[in-house]
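Our collaborator T.R. sent over the components below with a one-line note: 'Predict the complex.' Nothing else. No constraints on interfaces, no templates requested, no preferences about which chain binds where. So this is a plain run: every listed entity goes in together, and whatever single assembly comes back becomes the starting point for the next discussion.
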Amino acid sequence: MNSSESKTLSFWEDDGRFSGIFSWIFTTDHKRIGLLYLYSVLSLFAVGVVIGLLMRLELIAPGSTIVGAQTYNAFFTVHGVVMIFLFVIPSIPASLGNLFLPMQLGAEDVAFPRINLLSWWLYIIGLILILISLFTGQGAPDTGWTFYVPFSEYTTTNVNVAVIGVFILGFSSILTGLNFITTIHRMRIPGMKWTKIPLFGWALYATGWIQVLATPILGITVLLIFIERTMGVGLFDPAKGGDPVLYQHLFWIYSHPAVYIMVVPAMGVVTEIIPVFARKHIFGYKAIALSSLGIAFAGSLVWAHHMFTSGMSDTAVMIFSFLTFIVAIPSAVKVFNWVATLYKGSIVLEPPLLYALAFIFLFSIGGLTGLVVGAAGTDIHVHDTYFVVGHFHYTIFGGTVFGMFGGLHYWFPKIYGKMYNKRVATTAWGILFIGFNVLYFPMLVLGIMGMPRRYFDYLPEYQLGHVVSTVGSWIVAVGLILMFYNLYRGIKNGEPAGKNPWNAATLEWTTLSPPPKLNFIEEPELTRGPYEYKGIEDDAQYQ
Amino acid sequence: MTHNINKDYIGAKIGMWLFLFTEILLFGGLFVLYSVYLHRYPDEFHLAGQELNVYFGTANTLVLLTSSFSMALSITALQKENKKLCMVLLIITMVLACVFLVNKYFEWGAKIHHGIYPDSPTLLERPKGEIIFFGLYYIMTGLHGLHVLIGALIIFVVLVLVAKNRVTSSDFVAVENTGLYWHLVDMIWIYLFPLFYLVV
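Returned assembly:
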């Protein structure tokens, strides 16, 4: 093999120092780590979906249908812990971010490749601990993913192991954020000014700051749960002088910003997709870049809107309600910019764009219902009801996960060098979109009717809504299976995709698909902005 | 393996500073709890705080400040290509870290000997504010002590790297970052000391 051949070997074939499975789990190549994350988080997504389906099945009729009350408590806890800490938080940044951030910057790798590998290892250790907590001791945790005191201090289920798992996952998340911030500061190719960074990079930059600045608070909070349970210090126990509301403050100081760790990268993905398929320069580049930072900043000030009914002063409630509304401004800036980019664009309705459009639609519903929950008056009525469940599934599933699916369909040809069947992809998208609304819209109605969340049983008048919702969950499952099957088929026998199947302008599309080990065969050059499509058609000829 | 051999000095420093932010925020959560409970139980905090041995605390403050000094000197020594002096200073820093921990061990031991430790029957008979004060005392100084221990281990690793010439006068960012970490550990103690031993 001569050297020019080895240079064009893709990162799939070029193993480096180890061989076999070790060439993956000991790799420092950001693309391989990104794929490790991708497969890990998608497996955990499958676990979370199955538990979700079981919960919906249980709720199809009042009373006990397939499981008892304690198992149901474990279900919603495990569904929450798996989906939030193991799937959604690492989903886009750690998988697609790792895969494409360095390539979009024209770099060979992230700033700290070995720390990157360490964060995946920490993720796996945290994952194993959480799995252990499900099957050992006196049963899976039943506290809800929020681990609220005082119940979490006294329940006999396996909370200790689970919170240590969450602590380690937090560490993993911090290291990813730290790595990305440094990468964006230090690894851009010459000539890439801050205003030339692709907006996905800006989104990851904002996300990185939230990861670094918010996650430690979660770390100390879950550590305190562990200390409380093992030593009984009493910091959150009123009998010993503590205050449970302080726990809620500490918990949400992380966990509300965490919502933006989930959704800002998805917004970044959507921002990459829309201009490519509208064949137009993104409208308001700087506004989008700054609104990512704006969301990160404002989103860090609104944690206490989870606690309007927990007993805060009226002044605090009004301030936090007001601040919550402020987050809507940068979010709306983004939505308007996407719509303005589409306006008079030359739109090509490919699957990635369909997911991006679904993102805008579903996330807008999530955002508007968020205003209902963020306003103190209406929140008193819908607090801890299915309205909240519907709201955050619209935001997180409809937002983050649809954004991630869009990103998967968008970058799939770059990762695998092949193309999936676009017609099947469109069908799967349609089924998912319909199923999603059938699944979650009834929850908004149920919530307004007064159905509390996390309840195992309910009155007969709520049954219609639950039946519709459960049927919706089956439609979603069909859509997911079809989508993943189609992607799998694409990997196996898809058509070769070529360098730049979408005629995009960012740097990752200038290299081979799949890219070689060091991303670019020759040093890349920055000849155009990330969203300047004029003349790009010529590039496609080199496929 | 093709590896990026150009080391990025500024990048390494940025990474370390970001990590230090996370450490400050980790302790920040505890400082928030401290301030709220101090506000709620000012009198009990005052009484309980008087039971802590201010001499132990002062001694440990001096030990840590001195160790920060020797740490800083070790970096300069390495930059001036005096490897031997650098190693001596790193060892001094490590020894001082151990002195701190031994001191802490005796201080905690005395309290535990008197039955004052989390969830102990003696402590639970006391007013709520004092239970919380001692709870925070053990958690915050304990977490800080853990950081001292980790810091000492990191200094040991760096010491070995210097000895093996993996860290040299032209590539010293590992020592420098260790120094930053050590100064942070020192700085957190500078806040813990007055909060527990002096102010209340």
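Summary for T.R.: The mean pLDDT of chain A is 93.
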